[in-house]
Every structure is written in structure tokens, then in C-alpha cells.
Amino acid sequence: MRVGRLTLVVLCGLVLAGPAAAQTNQAAKGRGPIANTPDQTVTGSAMAVEGDLLTVNGMAVRLMGIDAPDPGQKCKNRYGHELDCFKVATAVLANMVKGEEVTCTITEQDRTGEKKGECRVRGVDLGAAMVSRGWAFQYASLSPAYQKGEAYAQSKRMGLWAGQVEKPWQWRSRQLREKAK
After folding, report:
1. Which of 23, 104, 121, 142 could form a disulfide bond with 100, CB atoms 3.0-4.6 angstroms apart?
2. Which domains does the chain have, with CATH numbers?
3. In angstroms, rounded to a whole number, what is the distance separating the alpha carbons of residues 71 and 43?
4. Residue 38 — pLDDT band, cuts 50, 70, 90?
5. What gap in Å lies between CA 44 and CA 56, rounded to an integer?
6. How many CB atoms lie within 10 A of CB 12?
7. What is the per-residue pLDDT across 41-86, written as a single tens digit (0 to 9) for each?
8. What's CA 16's distance to the chain center, in Å?
9. Phi and psi for 165 in degrees, rounded to 5?
10. What is the pTM of this model?
11. H or E stretch covering 124
12. What are all long-range contacts of 26-32, with beta carbons under 8 Å and residues at least 24 apart?
């Protein structure tokens, strides 16, 4: 009888520890929730560092599911004039968070330690706002959540869609190829 109870206690312990152990393993590999902090929330004042990157109370948070122009990336407006689309996209995000309380739900930490999540101002998803205004692109391979917003911005020729722009991931790949030559 004692062996039966001991086995039952060990099995219950394994069942209860299983999800926590799996969660910690995922976080250690840089995928899934952050260890011991699934859906960590950070609230406070924010600054735009890039068109898809904020600091909230000093913590860097990359907006999930979008990609905005990178430093040095140029694009052309509707009249063919070149502009620094990185600076413009960053300024647009900065205006959205200026003087506002920002709440970010951190859902992932990648292998480099960068935290990723969804950030909101007055209930508005900043990633969705950047994409639907045309100042960032949906990252379809990560999330289809912003597909309609991007289609809207593109159809109305808003933001980056007004002129000529290379998607940031394509621009980064081209930069790497050119440096390799």
C-alpha cells in the first residue's frame, strides 16, 4: 500500500511540474513565454526607439507581428523625393505614445533576450495603428493579425505605400548581400 501512495504522489508531482518545466524550457530556447512571467505586463511612459521598438519605463519592447524601416533605410515619397523612412516611422510611433500611458503585454523573449509583445495606448494596439497608417509592415510569417490593416493602407496609398519602399526584411537581406561582395 505504501508503494502505491508513493507512486501516486510522484505521478501527481510530475503532472503538476510538467507545464512549468515545459514553459521554462521554451523560454530558455528563446521561444514562447518568458520563464515564470507568462504575459508579463509593463505600464508607464514610453519612448519610440524605432518604428517598431519602444522603451517602456526603460524596458525595450519590440512590437509583435510588425516590421518598420531600419536605420539608414531610405524610401521615396509620392513625388519621387527620397526621405529617411526610418526617421519618419519612428516619429509617427513617437507621436502616438507622447504623453500617454502605454501598456505592453510581453509574450515572448527571443534568443538574444529581446522582449516582444503587444503595446496599447488607450486600448489601441500600436502595432495595428502603425500598419494601418502605412508606417510599418505586417510580418505575415509571424502573425496574420495585421493583414487587413496593411491591405487598407496599401489600397489608400497611406504612409510608406504612397511612394516606393522596400520591405525592411528585403532591405536587410540586400544590405547583407552587398556587404558580402
Report:
1. 121
2. 37-180 (2.40.50.90)
3. 27
4. low
5. 6
6. 10
7. 999 999 999 999 999 999 999 999 999 999 999 999 999 999 999 9
8. 32
9. -150, 145
10. 0.76
11. strand 124-125
12. 27/109, 29/111, 30/109, 30/110, 30/111, 30/112, 31/108, 31/110, 32/108
84: cell is 529617411
Half-sphere exposure of 169 (CA within 13 A, CB side): 10
Is pLDDT at 2 greater than 50 in this prediction? Answer: no
Which grid coordinates are listed for 131? Answer: 500598419
107 contacts: CB under 8 Å, gap ≥ 6:
33, 38, 39, 64, 116, 117, 118
* Three cell numbers, residue 137: 509592415
Q: What is the reported pLDDT for 22?
A: 35
DSSP state of 100: S
The single residue listed with the C-alpha cell 508579463 is 40
- Tens-digit pLDDT profile for residues 128-159: 999 999 999 998 776 788 999 999 999 999 99
